[in-house]
Amino acid sequence: MAAGAAPANIDVRGADGRPLAGAIVMIDTPRKPAAPIRFTWGTTMGQRNIQFDPRILIVPVGSTVTFPNYDKVRHQVYSFSKPKKFDLKLYGKDQSRSILFDRPGAVTVGCNIHDAMSGVIMVVDTPYAAQTDAAGHAALSGVPAGGATVRVWHPSIRSNGNVLAQAATIPATGFTASYTIRR
Asked: Superkingdom of the source (predicted)?
């Protein structure tokens, strides 16, 4: 961990007080990374068992996301979301398509053939982003100490872009916070 960099542990709870799994936590800092943003989980959103896998994917701005089809049926993946509109025409098993995501924001994806299929690609311009686990917890490392904005995205958040944003100060010793989503 670089000097002045701290761990951040954030818990997110729903309006009912229960842990909120699948929320995306992002920390924006004035200090921009020197190298391109990369995450350990890759940039692939497959179609498997008539659903997107993973259902939620975080990628940095400028990423090309691949959409391989592992199902025996054909899919037509699309999005009407403002950050990225696209329509991948029908393609079958063991075929793949790719799209460049060049603007930040939540991109909801679906399949024109299978209405129950839905997923989200969160395109971020910060290296400090993670999805909450089943316990509503997200752990981020290497966050620069100082002023920051913590943003939490989840479809149940009833605000512009489904995002809750709050100013925070990240101490050099680490940051721990809990956010409860109000409806």
From this structure: Bacteria
Cα dihedral sign, 138-143-147-151: negative
Contacts of 65-68 spanning 24+ positions with Cβ under 8 A = 65/98, 65/99, 65/101, 65/121, 66/96, 66/97, 66/98, 67/96, 67/97, 67/98, 67/99, 68/44, 68/94, 68/95, 68/96
- Domain of residue 24 covers 7-29+127-180
Which tokens belong to 107?
């991109």
pLDDT tens, position by position, 64-121: 999 999 999 999 999 999 999 999 999 999 999 999 999 999 999 999 999 999 999 9
Strand 63-68 and strand 96-101: pairing? antiparallel
Burial class of 76 by CB neighbour count within 10 A (0 to 12, 13 to 18, 19+): middle
- Domain-embedded: residue 158: yes
What is the largest distance, in Å, between two alpha-carbon atoms of the chain? 51
Is residue 114 in a domain? Answer: yes
**In the sheet where 146-153 sits, what is the strand order?**
129-131, 24-28, 146-153, 163-170
Going 132 to 133 to 136 to 142, the CA torsion angle's sign is negative
